[in-house]
Amino acid sequence: MKKTIILLLAAVVAASCAREPKFVISGTIDGAADETIILQKRIPGGYEGIDTAVLANGAFTLEGVIDYPQLVNLAIQGKRGGLNFYLENSEITIHGHADSLYLASVSGSATQTEFDSYKALFDESNAEMTKIYDRYRAAKMEGNEELASSIEKELEALDMKQKDVRKEFIANNPASYVTPAVLGELAYYLEADEMEGLLGKLDTSLNKVKSVVTMKERLVQLKAVAIGQKAPDFTLNDVDGNPVSLYSKLGGNTQLLLLDFWAAWCGPCRQENPNVVKIWNEYNKKGFDVFGVSLDRSKEDWVKAISDDKLTWTHVSDLKYWDCAPAKQYAVSAIPANFLLDANGIIVGHNLRGDALAQKVKEILDTK
User: What is the DSSP code (8-state) at residue 233?
Assistant: First the structure.
């Protein structure tokens, strides 16, 4: 009898184990022979492998367990790109072609279905944005700066509408595993108070998501450099190798200092530089100055960009790319990024670009 009970218990345990959640990916990739398929997830600095399989007549199967639904990448070894999709513990089917794996179909992942619905929210506005951008590019090529500036405002208005759609999605889907990625898309544009508000709307079930943990850590940093806070001091070498501190540029004739994070390799930074030059030329004698912090790796590229863009203010860098210490200190995750400081080092503006920066400088200095 005792032996029978033990056998029954063993059978129950075995059955229980068999029912443990796991993912099973069955797929076919046309145009590929016996190549190796890699399932991987993005981590800081690259990818981390989850599993691999060798194609057999274009077919493959991958199995495993994942802690929670998350965005992963399926790629062919030795080839760039691949398919990004939401993996979860379910039976998932993928069909695609080796030459366009990023277009492969995915079924069986409820989270991926949510993500597809989310992306569809932007189909109309993305098409409209493409048309507007074509007009903007044509105006630029024709040298019609007045028209280009007008069209740029249309692009900004449409971009703002898309941000509102993302915020609405977050509010309406607090427990969706897609929501952390949506919030991540907005993170760069949010001040500390709005970031805190949106994070506070998330269901507690998302607390285990790594990106949520990272954003909460970032929130602590954002609060330290939020508008109204005193900017933390730091010291880096200038182009001649001389140490220069942020605080050494405050006070005296300087009533407003733009702490500008940029790099020679950053296209949007280089596009914004003429705007900053224009504001510097107009308001420098009234007390406006710039302190440039470069995230470059090459001193040659850095110095050349300063010269090419006619950036006549003080520049510093540790030439450590994204490991730039002040960039981390100021929670900079994308560039261009900037902080506008008053004479006492109090932050009075954040990530102001183009007309917004010009208006803020004018508003403050023209009243002095």
Answer: P
Question: What backbone phi and psi angles, to 5 degrees, belong to 70?
Answer: -155, 155
pLDDT in tens, 312-328: 999 999 999 999 999 99
Q: What is the pLDDT of residues 225-264, one digit of tens each?
A: 999 999 999 999 999 999 999 999 998 889 999 999 999 9
Q: Are residues 100 and 79 in the same domain?
A: yes
**Which residue, 356, 347, 359, 351, is CA-closest to 256?**
347
- At residue 11, the pLDDT reads 46
Residues 53 and 125 in one domain: no
- If phi over 0 gives left and psi between -120 and 50 gives alpha, with beta otherwise, what is residue 101? alpha
Whether the CA torsion 176, 177, 181, 183 is positive or negative: it is positive
Structure token pair of residue 126? 């993305």
- The two tokens of residue 90 are 């379910």
User: Are 76 and 22 found together in one domain?
Assistant: yes
Domain that holds residue 161: 120-224
Q: Which helix (H) or strand (E) holds 181?
A: helix 179-186
Q: Mean pLDDT score of the chain, rounded to an integer?
A: 91
Q: Are residues 242 and 285 in the same domain?
A: yes
Give a yes or no: residue 346 inside a domain.
Answer: yes
Number of other residues whose CB lies within 10 A of the CB of residue 331? 19
Residue 303 and residue 309 in contact, taking contact as beta carbons nearer than 8 Å: no
Query: Residue 180: is it exposed, middle or buried by C-beta count within 10 angstroms (0-12/13-18/19+)?
Result: buried
The predicted model scores a pTM of 0.75
Query: Does the residue 289 lie in any domain?
Result: yes
Q: Are residues 132 and 206 in the same domain?
A: yes
3-class secondary structure, 275: helix
Average pLDDT score over residue span 16-35: 83
For residues 348 and 90, give the distance between their C-alpha atoms in angstroms, rounded to a whole number.
Answer: 49
Query: What average pLDDT score do residues 38-46 get?
Result: 85
**Residue 334 covered by a domain:** yes
Rounded-to-integer distance, Cα 85 and Cα 63, Å = 16
DSSP 346: B
Token pair recorded at residue 177: 């595993």
281-303 pLDDT, tens digit each: 999 999 999 999 999 999 999 99
CATH number at 329 reads 3.40.30.10
Quickly tell me which residue has 């308001």 as its tokens.
283
Same domain, 239 and 359: yes
